Amino acid sequence: MMKKDAPRGTRTGFTTGACSAAAARAAVIGLVTGQVPDAVECLLPNGDLVTFAVQDGRVDGVGGGASAHAMVIKDAGDDPDCTDKAHLTADVRLLPERPGEVLLLGGSGVGTVTLPGLGLAVGGPAINPVPRRNIEANVRAAGASLLDEAGFEVTISVPQGEQMAKKTTNARLGILGGISILGTTGIVKPYSTAAWRASVVQGVHVAGTLPEGVVVLTTGGRTEKFVMEELPHLPEAAFVQMGDFLRYAMGAAVKAGLKKVVIGGMVGKLTKIAQGETITHAGRAEVDTGLLADIAAGLGAAPDVCDAIRQNETARYAGERMDALGLGQAFHTALAQRVIQTLRTRYPDQFELKVLVCDFDGRKIAEAP
């Protein structure tokens, strides 16, 4: 079980996949023994054996027509996850006509996949491959004594899933009607970047299945709103908020075979990209204001202005100084061109590149090429 005395903000939790596997295992135990337990030990994908409390357990029917129901309430630990307290529910039915098989279905509140690119069958439930294997492994372990004579039909549902999904990017990825069953380890780490990183890669792969052949990468909500207004002809699934994860987004674009990559950003993140940073988080590296001073000098800015830009710690300052000289658009255009030069060096001839630059109010300043 989780450590309840962990320092505030560090307490780990469990994924929707782990909770689903625990609920399924408890329901299968109910079919084997005639009673669903109040707690169940479940093997996580990372190899940990964890005890989960089980709610609402019941066994209905007897013999070949028997079914069982169990529910595990997700505890996300200290992670601000919109699926915290979700009721991961498993309904397991015996299939006498299909001995040895485990059939996994999605019920109410589990999303349905409607677009390719997710590594999941279109029309099937949004239960990712690792949780899928983990659920089946737990079902087989708990139900080994019955599998010679029958199979199991396991339906995972989440009563609040449709509402929870509105707080996710599922609809944009073509996952409709509920949440995804996720988790590569079974453990949720507070404020983990892994989930966001994975969603960026997933989003780029979905964009790669669209006929437009373009992905639009942005650094946040403001820049995404800006590029959506600039490129209204593109479907929503073409836009991916990459945040700081440029390297993962670009790698996914290469893998997806995209013909064009558009990057929307503001001066700070774009400077990080221009200077060669592939993870643009503020804590990873300082902004190279020397690069900005060189751009300013190339546009004819006076030496004292260039020195001031070089000695300041922020990219925003450089933009404001150049704006004051009437060189703001030229400066941001030159910066966008530097971004393209840097990315072309790393990804030569792999896709057409375009950079759109907005100010801190989300208004367009420049673009390149």
From TrEMBL:
Q: Which Pfam families does this chain map to?
A: CbiD
Record the organism: Polaromonas aquatica
The question of whether Nucleus is a record keyword is answered with no
State the family it belongs to: Belongs to the CbiD family.
Q: What is its EC number?
A: 2.1.1.195
Q: Which residues form the signal peptide?
A: none
> Which pathway is recorded for this entry?
Cofactor biosynthesis; adenosylcobalamin biosynthesis; cob(II)yrinate a,c-diamide from sirohydrochlorin (anaerobic route): step 6/10
EC top class, as a word: transferase
Q: What is this protein called?
A: Cobalt-precorrin-5B C(1)-methyltransferase
